[in-house]
Model the fold of this input.
Amino acid sequence: MSRALISSGGDRRDRDQQGAGVDMSTDLAGVVLPSAVLTASGCAAAGRELDAFMDITQLGAVVTKSIMLKPRSGRATPRMSETPSGMLNSIGLQGPGIDSFIENDLAWLAQRGARTIVSIAGETVDEYARLAAKLRNIGGFEALEVNISCPNVADRGQVFACRSESAAQVIQAVRRGSDSRMPIFAKLSPDVTDIVEIADSVIRAGATGVSLINTLLGMVIDTRTMRPALAGVTGGLSGPAVRPVAVRCVWQVRQAFPNIPIIGMGGIRSGHDALEFLLAGANAVSVGTAVFNDPGAPARIHHELAGLLSDRGIAQLGEVISYAHRPEVDLGVSPLEPGSGFEDWDFISE
Amino acid sequence: MPEQVMSEVLDNRRVGDYHVLSLTAPGIAETARPGHFVTLAMGGEESSMVLRRAFAIHQIASRGVYGGTLDIAVAVQGLGTKWLAERRRHDVVSLVGPLGQPFSLPKQGVSCVLVGGGYGSAPLFMLAQDLRDRGCRVDMVIGASTEAKLFGVLELKRLASSLTITTDDGSAGVRGRVTDALGEAIDRAATDVVYACGPMPMLAEVARISTKRRVFSQCAVEESMACGIGVCMTCVLPVVGDDGVTRMVRSCIDGPVFRGDRVRWQDIGTIPSDAVGAPDQEVVR
Done:
């Protein structure tokens, strides 16, 4: 069975070749990324550690862990609890602060040649504005992701993405503080009654696009200690368990806004999962919790996705974006059946 | 530089209450040093257990056709470790390593006491061998709650100048805890350095006893980790740096081995108010 080892390497090579002809690039708010697969904020630090497991310059972009104005220690431990097909975390945005981030992390990413999307987080609208101002003339990154949906704050009232008005205020402040050409993605929370309403408010406030979704607020109680498992009591739920919620959010927002750029994330662990998000309407996908299970996951998912697109006769990744939204045409054949290539569908639907 | 490989299980044997798994580890075993750890994914590709489990490297070997191999000691504590303990010869598991900062070894042939609690003694085998190769005196104190939870007593006897065994219930060795026997072991061997691996309360006490006697200590901590590679920030603990400033550092990247006198043992599980980036007092809830 040492054969299993040999064949696993062999599979990878086959997969690489299989998807080799597919153009995996995607246009994200005018920025062309060579791959639609990105890391997810908070699950890749600032890229350096993951570079040992894959070539991070091959990714669409590294989305960095949300950075705040000042150094921050985060919440007390325990910060993590494994849940069925997922995990609960309450890190509380531990990080070095924007100045150190720009000087060390962003500089390293630029020097390494990686494309970067910088995620920012603040406690007040003013803090977001100051972060945008600090980053304004720095360069070295492709877009801003504005984390207005971190559930690990002391006051739930501070989750800006839970209300249209507060979400819009933050985005407006970041928009004003940034270069007008800088793409701004608002990262939204699924813990709302109507995510389309929140998306609408941030787009009106100047967001170029949206990132869907942040973690869901959850809780685990340890039946041994008979206390909450996390020191912070509640935490953010992520991993494959939340994937259907995320796909639903992408679908709903895409349906309401046919043309805005969407970065989809939430439990993506395979090329199939990534394809599901693209079909729902995401222009790019972020891989988060899967990295904890498989540090090379983003690169693996890129290759798996290329293979799946190739299998379906698709030459350019953009062709599948929002494809699940197409009108139903009952032709009695599935596009996956042999003899029915993707090109045929284009032809028929015309 | 850590490697990620699909590893073949070569052997799975019972040692007391534990399982010792031998794994192929090409590119990992060759660079592993005492105190390094590895992580394994639990339950296969579509597993509902999404987090890897961390294990200290117990032994490394070079086995002909397999190249580098390593052993880990597994205690069944939940569904993940239960699954792992059920792996048989030829099963394949995802292995990442070597990870973390290993024990620092003295340049001179000094006198060392190695302290292990439960299967915390597992990484001390390689360490004892390396220390002896450097001409160090090695004394050992190992303990557990009961005899079946002691790990590797026979082989440790061979590696150490003296071996003190303690059990909470007195089923083997001296009734009591390793920390009850440590002070005497330090005095007897005129110890220069204490190395320890085991549960957090044991390490806190080992560090306290060592520091009080002005003996340098190195402790391999056991914090729960999600990623093991430095990206998730779950395994942090308060540690005082060379500059005297306390930071919440990652035990996977900056540890698992820390200087005993630098870890703020009493503050683990909290954010000390003087730590870098600690919340402002009015925000604390």
Observations:
- Chain B touches chain A through 48 residues (CB under 8 Å).
